[in-house]
Structures are given as structure tokens and as C-alpha cells.
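Researcher: Structure prediction, please.
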Amino acid sequence: MANGSNSSDTISGIPETFTRLRSFEGEPGEFWPKFLCGLIDLAKAGSGGILIRNRSEDWKPIAVQPKGVKILDDVNLEGHDFNEDVKLGVRNGVTVRFIEEGKRETAHRVLVDLTPEGSNTQALALLFLPEQEAISLTDVMIRLDLAREIAASYSLQRRLSRAEFSVGSFASILDLLQVLDVRQRYLEAAMTLCNEVAARFRCDRVSLGVLVNNQVRLQAISHTEKIEKKMEAVLSLEEVMEEALDQDEEVVIPVQPGSDTVVRCHDKFAGGDADINIASIPMRRLGEPEGVLTLERSGDKFDENEMQTLRALCDQVVTRLENLRKRDRWMGARVWAAIRE
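Model: Predicted structure follows.
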């Protein structure tokens, strides 16, 4: 009877954090820190982290508690290889390893496999339990195994959401490409792109810049007929775009947790306004950056699905825009040559 009571306590004793996470629909950057806090509370752990890696790479923490702890320091215990314990965790779901000092057990290291079904990215929770547990190790493993179902449910919901979104995203990109295809002049197409993106992504402003002689030059701003190239706002926008191109990667404000992207110019441009969200996406042609699309929006942050759509859109429009720009320059050169004759 005692064992039955313990199991009942285990199920009813799941922290409120997990109750809320069962219906959580937010971004992974919000889910995993909350999930980790729930695991630590559930297992009465002293510290812990959520780790991920691609199959051939090293483990990387995406959430740790307490904040700032070096969770991967000294993970290879004497006589026990960490990656071997990971294999056990994958097979068993949850695995426990005693940590010894001399001949005395001082703590336990617990690995919880969180890898989504069919994923190429491995994920696990690493927890360190103190020597004197408030609950038995058996109960810890039962509770953690139950918690794995919440992580699996979230991962499945994310995959289904992405699949549904991809269909709508693809249709939206095709629709925008059709709108651009009827534009026969470069600046007209550039302005159309900015206006359409601003409308579809509820932006206050969308700007397009391209590389000219190794410097970013602003080409178009949504709902702006004429650009005064020496205006301070224009020069500031070009600095923002340069920051994304110099790193050849997206820059998003507010910064995502764990990001090491340089955002000095973007922060300066936002002017300390916490309600402003900025996303700068490099536009690449044959793998080389050729321009930047910068979006500004009040209120809602740019989520992962929106960023995926913007990446795909930039990949699709960059060649069309560059071809129009070269053709307009060629036509301009011919007109100028005719005038001189």
C-alpha cells in the first residue's frame, strides 16, 4: 500500500509549472527555462540545465539554473563517460549516476532524455541532486519520466504548428512574388516589396538596403516616395543594415536568450524604447550577402514562424531585384550615351 500511495503523491505532486506548460504555445526560448524550473522543483535538484546538440557537435546549454552556473564543467565523472551515460538515458528515458568523493556518495547526476521523435537534434536535461534527497530516487525517476511527456507534447505541437504554418507561408510568398513580377522597374519593385511586407507583417516601417561598392545604401522605405540620403534617420538605418551584413546573420531586437549577436547599432536605433521590435534579415545571392531587409514593429515580437517566412521570402526576391537593378543601370547608361552623342 505504501508504494501505491507514493505513486499517487508523485502524480498529484506535479508542480503547477507543468500544469501550465501542458497548454503552452509560446516560443522555445520561453518554454525551456520554465520547463527546467519545473524539473528542478519536481526532483528537488540543486542545479540543472537543458542541453542540445546536433549529432556531430558538442553539447550546448540553452537554459541553466541557477543562472550563470557552468553546468557542463566536470560532467565526466571518474570512471563514467558522460556520453555513455547519455546513451543509457536515451534507452531508459531517465538515468541516475552516483557522484562519489572517496568512497562516500555525495550527490547524484540525473540525465533525462528529451529528444523529439525523429529529430536530428538531441536534447536532454542534466540535474544534480544533493546527497540527502527530500524524496526517494525511485520517486524522482517516476516524476521525471512523467515530465518527459510534457516536453514531448510541446515538441509535437511545435512540429504540427510549423507544418500548418508552412502551407500558409508558402502561399503568401507565392502571392507576393506574383505582385513583384508585374513590376518592371527596380525602384518600383523595391518599394512594392517594402509596402507588401509592412502590410503582411503589421510593421510600422520596412526598409531595403543593398551593397554598393562594399557599402550598404538604402534603396526603399515603405510608404516613402523620396529618400533624403543625408538625413540622419537614413544614415542610422544604413548603420543598422551594415551591422547585420558585417556579421552575415539576422539581428533581432529584443535579443533572443543565449544569442551572441552584436546589436549595438540596433539598440541605438531603437533608442531604448522597449516596445520597438526590429528584425534585419540579410539577402543572399549564391551564398553571398547582397542586401538587407529591416523591419520595425511596435508591440508584438517577431516570432520564429515569421522569421522563417522572411528568410524564405528574401531568398526568393533577391535575384529578381538584382536583375532589375542591373537592367535599369544598363538602360540608364544607354540613355546617357545617346544623349552625349
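Model: The chain has nine helices and ten strands.
Researcher: Thanks, that helps.
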